[in-house]
């Protein structure tokens, strides 16, 4: 017999499948190949049980959902003080690609906007960009519970067209926020955005944060316990960009979205939630993803406050 949560997710999925607004991201040409009908919901509990509805095995690129996990990697590798000098924790209320840097220090306002995420990628352990990529890839794999793979076509497409991110990376170099070659750091950022995931992978990553930093199935620690609250805090205040305030008000959970159509949300100590649905609203957040989270929060009283 189906559990009540399984039946609930299936009927929510069926209901929201008919929600047809939003556009698939097109500013990275290769992303237009996503099917607007892909729609998956997955909830993973801290003891590793997964509840799924819809296209939860469909692969897509992680995009900005990678940002909290790479920020976590920077915190683990360089420590809170070092990272805090190079990336702030203030919501910018700006779009994901805004050049929101502190006017005096040049530090990006937070690690969820591109500027802060590129800076975070540059703080992964390693003395060369290649070593830093190995560290980022390994860390994302521990969060996911399996080795990562890239969508090479999306990576090339973003690298070929990411001129604004190039400008941001050079600004960061100008302020001494990036050591070494900013273009090599940026390529690692493009790679982290091109990591292939399915909805289950994202839900396990979210559940790892819910579980105090330990993957619920592998038992491996993905980040030191004190860093979990830091990562969840910036997800709560900055994870949904210029929708972050409304999100926290209405859904009340730390979260992160990506232009591939993924959203994760975390209920600490209980479970991780992931949705995949590529059509985005004008702020770059998955339309169905937001709706699923609003409904789960309301129907189960998940709002943290
Ligand atoms: O920096 C970029 O343009 C992308 N690779 C990632 C952006 C992203 O997912 C923003 N999120 N909504």
UniProtKB/TrEMBL annotation:
Which residue spans adopt a coiled-coil conformation according to this UniProt entry? none
Query: Keyword Acetylation: yes or no?
Result: yes
| Enzyme class at the top of the EC tree | hydrolase
Which GO-annotated molecular functions does the record name? glutaminase activity
Q: Which UniProt keywords apply?
A: Acetylation, Hydrolase
Reaction catalysed by this enzyme: L-glutamine + H2O = L-glutamate + NH4(+)
Q: What is its EC number?
A: 3.5.1.2
Superkingdom in the source lineage? Bacteria
**Annotated GO biological process:** glutamate biosynthetic process; L-glutamine catabolic process
Q: Which positions bind substrate? A: 64, 114, 158, 165, 189, 241, 259
**Where exactly are the transmembrane stretches of this chain?**
none
Please report which protein family the annotation says this sequence is part of: Belongs to the glutaminase family.
The record's subunit annotation is: Homotetramer.
Which protein is depicted? Glutaminase
User: Which start and end residues of the full protein are shown?
Assistant: 1 to 305 of 607
């Amino acid at each position: 017999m189906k559990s009540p949560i399984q039946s609930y997710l299936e009927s929510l999925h069926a209901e929201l499948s008919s929600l047809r607004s939003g556009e698939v991201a097109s500013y990275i040409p290769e992303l237009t190949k996503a099917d607007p009908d892909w729609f998956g919901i997955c909830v993973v509990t801290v003891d590793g049980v997964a509840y799924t509805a819809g296209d939860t095995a469909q692969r897509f690129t992680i995009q900005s959902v990678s940002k909290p996990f790479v920020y976590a990697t920077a915190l683990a590798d360089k420590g809170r003080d070092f990272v805090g000098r190079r990336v702030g924790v203030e919501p910018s209320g700006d779009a994901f690609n805004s050049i929101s840097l502190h006017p005096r220090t040049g530090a990006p306002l937070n690690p969820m906007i591109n500027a802060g995420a590129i800076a975070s990628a540059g703080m992964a352990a390693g003395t060369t960009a290649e070593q830093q990529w190995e560290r980022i890839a390994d860390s994302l794999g521990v969060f996911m519970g399996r080795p990562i793979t890239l969508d090479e076509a999306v990576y090339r497409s973003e690298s070929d067209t990411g001129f604004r991110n190039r400008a941001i990376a050079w600004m960061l170099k100008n302020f001494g926020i990036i050591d070494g070659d900013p273009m090599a750091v940026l390529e690692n950022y493009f790679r982290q955005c091109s990591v292939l995931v399915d909805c289950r992978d994202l839900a396990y990553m979210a559940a790892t944060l819910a579980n105090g930093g330990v993957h619920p199935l592998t038992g491996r620690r993905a980040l030191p316990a004190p860093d979990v609250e830091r990562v969840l805090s910036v997800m709560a205040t900055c994870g949904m960009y210029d929708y972050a305030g409304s999100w926290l008000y209405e859904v009340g959970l730390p979260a992160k979205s990506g232009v591939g159509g993924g959203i994760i949300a975390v209920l600490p100590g209980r479970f991780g939630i992931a949705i995949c649905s590529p059509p985005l609203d004008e702020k770059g957040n998955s339309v169905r993803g937001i709706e699923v989270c609003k409904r789960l929060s309301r129907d189960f009283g998940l709002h943290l406050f």
